Structure formats: structure tokens, C-alpha cells
Amino acid sequence: MKILAVNPGSTSTKIAVYEDETPRLVLNIRHSVEELSQFPRIIDQFEFRKHLVLEALEANDIPFKFDAIVGRGGLLKPIPGGVYAVNDAMLDDMLHAMRTHACNLGCLIAHELAAMLPGCPSFIADPGVVDELDDVARITGSPLMPSITIWHALNQRAIARRYAAERSALQPEAPVHYEDLNLIVCHLGGGVSVGVHRHGRAVDVPNALDGFGPFSPERAGTLPAGQLIDLCHSGRYTTEELKKRISGKAGLAAHLGTTDIPAIERRIAEGDTHAALVLDAMIYRIAKEIGGAAVVLYGKVDAILLTGGMAHSEYITSRLQERVSFLAPVHVYPGEDELEALVMNALGALRGELPVQVYR
Length: 360
Prior knowledge:
It catalyses: butanoate + ATP = butanoyl phosphate + ADP. Its EC number is 2.7.2.7. This protein is an alpha/beta fold and 360 residues long. The chain has helices at 33-37, 46-59, 88-95, 105-114, 153-170, 225-232, 239-246, 252-256, 261-269, 273-296, 314-324, 338-350, and strands spanning 2-8, 12-19, 22-30, 68-72, 83-85, 122-125, 182-188, 192-198, 201-204, 303-308, 330-334, 356-358.
């Protein structure tokens, strides 16, 4: 089986070509601010990014022949996790999405490229809107604002399955599956999401895009509601500027002027006490979120998994472990491999190992 995976991000388009489980090409095409500034809206980047994918395949002598093409899922309606065939309803929702993010281009690009190949299906898998919440987790203090799930579903679930596989390899006489475990998975990236995975369902996850949980390199997380309302009516900022203060120009970016963790760590090593205080505050907030997640599982936690780009930082992971290791063993999986996760989901669908769900 030959699979093409496409993962559009805010400043890059990542692609991978696999033959079964073997990667033949993994590429990160970076986009400069100048390149993207010519497009008024993210949806306007569609043709630009699609052609970059085709050019990259040609430049690397990859024939345009695939058994399936899988794209990163966008900010669709809330849906259960799994593999979905791209259909007209999905495409229409992405073209008229209420929330904009580069991930919305994933299914559009996958569908367009697959249409160039007779009989080639296009898929998405575990988009960031996966909603498997317990009913009690949906209720907030205002019926006007129920909980919304926007989180790193694809990477969290892939890492959870990887942990289960590694644990099974250590005890082949008693194999363990993701569906057998109670896990807390913390994705540490530009945004931070802490997910509670109970026997294969993500029963409590946040809206990590625009206003819930700990602050992160570029997002504000939960804010004091009264102060936020006052700021909205202060006349100091437009609506779009305020949204940037929630997601984009928030978190470490707002406090320290950068989201570069190694650069912040160098500042700390050189004696910048303010940088140390802010970074430690972020770690503190993340640890509190992990602690709260343990309550959802009544304290019966098999493992805490740390993943994402910031998991490369020993400064961050060691301090998190100090605060939360009393809850459960902590395992660190630096970075993310969403491309591989997309490919494995597509392979599972083609082989009949995973059901292909219908988006409605």
C-alpha cells in the first residue's frame, strides 16, 4: 500500500510518502511570513500549498500513484475519533468554517489530489475537534457556553497507542492495548492540551485553541472572565486584536516576546529571573491541569505521557515530573509524528482493520 499524507500547519506543510509501514519520503516545507502574507485568508492558500506538494513529489522522483491520500483533519463539527472518508459535507464545512486554521486545508488538499487518481480514496483521521466527552464534562457555569473540544487529538491518541505497544513489548505474555488503559496525555506545543483517556475514549479534553487550560508559548489559556469582559469594552483593542491576545500573541509570546524555548532557557542561564518566573509559571499551570485530570479518573492513572515540541526541553519535562510523578509513572515522547499517525490510520482503513466513518 502506498500512502501520501499531508499535514498543513500555520507556517509549514508537512508531507510523507509511505509504502506500508516504511517511510519513503518525509518532508517539512516551511513557509515564510512574506509567502503567506499574500493570501488574505487561510483558505486562499489552498492552491499554493497543493502545488507545493506536487512539486515536492516531482523533485524527489516520487511517482504520483497512491492507494490513498490522507490529510490532517480540520476544525469541523464535533465528531467521535477515528478515520473518516472525505465527502461533500466535510468539504462544504471546511469551506465555510467558523474557526480558521491551516489544518482546515488538509481534507481539501487530500480530496483534490485523490481526485486526480481513479479509485483513490481520501481520508482524515482524529481531527482536533474529536468529541468523546462524558456528559458531565460538557457543562460549564453558563448554559450559553458549553465545553468545546479543540485539542491535539491525532498526536495524543498516536502517543497513547505507542505507549501501549511499548508496554506490551516488555510483557508479551500479557499484552496491553490502548483500550485497556487509563492515561493522561499532555501535548506540549505552541498550544497545550491535557487529555484524559479512559479505556480508549478521550472523556475530558479542552478547547486548547481559544481559551481553556494552562497558558502556552502562544496561547493565553483560561483567563479571569470579569477582567476579560472589561478589556473587551475598554475600546483599547479591536475584536481581531483581542482574539490575537487569546491565541497567537499570548502566553510566552506576550510575556517574553518569543516562543523559542531554547532561547528562553539561555536567557534563564544568563540570569534573567523574569524569564525563569514566567516559564516556571507555565510549567506550574500545566502541572495543575494534569493534577485535575487525575480527578476525572478517580486517581486510577496508569501513566502520564508528555509529548509535543516542548517535550524536547529537559528543563520543562523534569520540572513537570517533579510535580506530577506522585500520581503515576511519567513517560516522555518528545516531538510529534502526526504524519505517521495519519498514515497508520489510512493503512488501517484500507486493510479493514479500522472502520471508515461517514461525516454528516
